[in-house]
Structures are given as structure tokens and as C-alpha cells.
TrEMBL record:
It is found in: Membrane. GO terms for molecular function: potassium:proton antiporter activity; sodium:proton antiporter activity. It is a multi-pass membrane protein. Residues 33-186, 221-361 form the Sodium/calcium exchanger membrane region domain. The chain crosses the membrane at residues 7-27, 33-54, 66-88, 100-121, 133-153, 165-183, 218-236, 256-274, 286-310, 322-339, 346-363. It comes from Luteipulveratus mongoliensis. It holds the Pfam family Na_Ca_ex. This is Ionic transporter y4hA. One of its GO terms (cellular component) is plasma membrane. InterPro entries: Alkaline_pH_Ca-Antiporter, NaCa_Exmemb. Its main location: membrane.
Amino acid sequence: MAQERPAALTWTTSAPVLALVGLALTWGRHLPIVVVLVVAVLLVGAVLAAVHHAEVVAHRVGEPMGSLVLAVAVTIIEVALIVTLMASGKDSESLARDTVFAAVMITCNGIVGLALLVGSLRHHTVTFNAEGTGSALACVVTLATVCLVLPTFTTAAPGPEFSGSQLTFAAVASLAVYGLFVFNQTVKHRDFFLPVVPDATPEPDSETHAEPPSDRTALISLGLLLVSLVGVVGLAKVASPSIEDGVDALGLPPTFVGVVIALLVLLPETLAAVRAARRNMVQTSLNLALGSAMASIGLTIPVIAVASIWLDGPLHLGLEPTQLVLLAMTVAVSVLTIVPGRATRLQGGVHLVLAAAFVFLAANP
């Protein structure tokens, strides 16, 4: 049997360290285009490494806790990117809304659609637990309505924003809903979120059947996960002017910055969801997708609420008419997809069309 390579020789160990080195060399400096490209590579490497180490920790603690670890790790990255870009002060009043909404649309349509399509192409019909997935969708819809829809119609503050007391209520309500869901998912009804494969077993896979890592390996991955997150936060701050300049140079609206952030932080989780779907474990894919959507709202809004104490300028959270229509369509289609507890490539294709419509209209409103 071949010996396992030392951890020090793997890219997942090197990427966080290189990200910190790149951060130290570029912090507070004006960067030429070549250096910006290097920073982008290091940033992507740090994101991928962060999710890899989150997967190691997740494998140690088991499912569905593993999906929760991944969702929270990705959301921490997302919140860090939002706060760092908002601190720059350039077109930042709607950045939190645009990024959170983009995360919801990408997870509920892009990741769900890809998982259903990949799984059904390989296994014809995919099955999942409608009770657990339905409760996750209910939480996503509640959070999206309270935090992103209501600010469009409230009148206590001018524009699509909450007053101070309303923002506080939304933040507390978000934490409450998210906390209740986590308790339900990990304590009272874990079986609702376990993979459902009635007529078959998950396909053989080295990750599925590998022994859980030791406590020492999990702790090392936890430490490297934290290092990766520091690298992501710092490099995002370094690259934020280039992201905004790039969006301007392409003639895209400033709100498209939120889409770029969401696509960046959700890419590794998308890959994880597709891998699970290929193994006929679509329930895990849905846990990842809806868990990320829920964490994106339930954890981001409270952090932004606290950050608004020292951040200058308005905080626009209310969705625009086109976004409201897309959200309503996503909710309706998601309910019809989840209620039967099984899906085919048709449902996956419909969700992907909604995801494509969102990206297209975000670039061409």
C-alpha cells in the first residue's frame, strides 16, 4: 500500500500559507494587473482550500452536521467579502442585498438545478427527503421575505431600507430562524436530512467509504480552515478595487459586483454538491444548497446590522421589481420540485433556466 503524502506537500496545506504570504506582500499597495491576477489565483486557491478543510471536518463529524460546517464556512467567506467591499464606500449601499440575493438565486436554482440534472442524468430519477428539504426551503423563504422583501414596502425609512429598530428585529429574527433550523437538523430530526436511496445504495466512492479522519487530522484541518479564511478576507480587501474596476470596464451595473462575490464563494460548494449528486446522494446536495442560502441570509444580515453602526451611508436591503419576480418564481418552482420527494432532469433544467435568467438580467437589467 502506498504511503500517504505528508500534509505539508499537499496543495490544500500550501494554498492557505501562500495566501497569507501574498497578503503580506500586497497589503495597502496599488497593484499592477499582473499582480492582481496572481492575487486572484491565490484568492481562489484559499477559497478551495477552505472548503476542502471544511469537508475534512465535516467528514469527521458526519452528516448532516457536515453540510452545516460547509455552509457556515462559505457564509463566513461571503460576509467577509461583503464587509470589506462595503468598507471601501464605493456603490456599497446595495452590496449586501445584491450579494445575499445572488447567493439565494445561485444556491436555490444553480446548485439545486445542477445537482438534480447531474443526478438524474446518471440515475434517471433522484430521491430525497421532502420533510427535511421542505423545512429548509420554508426557512429560506421566511428569511428572504423578512430581510429582502419587506424593506421594499416599509415606510419608516426612506427608500428600500429598514429603520434602525426594524433592522434590529430582522437581525434577531434571522438568528432565531437559523438557530431553530440548526437545532432541528442536528438534534431533533437528523434523519430528515440523511441521504435517501430507496432502491439502491450510494455508488462506491473513496470519500464516501473512507474512514473518518482522526481527531488530530480534523484539528489540523480546522486550523488550516481558519488560516484560509484569514487569507480570503485579506486578499478580498486587496482585490476589491480591481473587482469594482473590472465590472465598470465591462460596462456592467455596479450591482453585478454582488453576483461576482456570490459566484466566487459558492463555486467550491457547487462542486461538492455535484459530486454528491453523482454518488446518488442528492439529499446531501440539497442540504448544501439550501443550507448555504439560509446561512447567507441568517448570518449575513445580523453581521451587516452590527457593521452598519460604524459604516457610513444607507443600507438598501429591499429587492427591486425584477428581483421580486425572480424570487417569487424561484419559491413557486422550488415548492413544486420538493413536495414529491423525487425529481428528474426536467426539474433540474427548469431551475438552471431560472439561474441563467438571474445572471443575464443582473448583467443586463
